Amino acid sequence: MNKNLPKRANQHILETASFKLFVSKIPDSWVIRDLTERDYGIDCYLEIVNAENELTGQVVLIQLKATKNIKWTKEGTHNIRGIKKTTTNYWNNFKIPVFIFLADIEEKELYFVSVNHFIK
Asked: Residue 45 burial (CB < 10 Å; 0-12/13-18/19+)?
């Protein structure tokens, strides 16, 4: 007998895949600090660890975006769409750097840009 069951949204699957890809590309010694509260434009904190495995206090904020396959322009760029103005305003309020990471799930590639560069 077939019962209707909940289905996982494709966007949620892409988000999970992007986080797994992000984790796989970051050095094992670096610290990824997950957020336990709802996502309001920041997915995690990333703390850089130096060559001596010392915590540096150098922290950046990360926003992950995912797509199955990035559609590049002839100029070799990609426009990230769907980011609200309120989110960019929020990012501008942080005193520490914020980066957007774009995950290409099919190619298993990760690209990033500083939000300060992206917004301007």
From this structure: middle
User: Nearest-CA neighbor of 45 among 74, 24, 22?
Assistant: 22
The residues pairing with 34 across neighbouring beta strands, listed in sequence order, are 44
CB 80 within 8 A of CB 90: no
Q: Where are the beta strands (DSSP E) in the chain?
A: 31-34, 44-49, 55-67, 98-104, 109-114
What confidence category does residue 38 fall into, taking pLDDT thresholds of 50, 70 and 90? Answer: confident
User: For residue 89, what is the enclosing H or E element?
Assistant: helix 85-92
Long-range pairs, 1-5, Cβ under 8 A, ≥24: none
pTM across the whole model: 0.86
Structure confidence by residue, pLDDT tens digits, 102-117 = 999 999 999 999 998 7
Q: Quick one: DSSP state of residue 108?
A: T
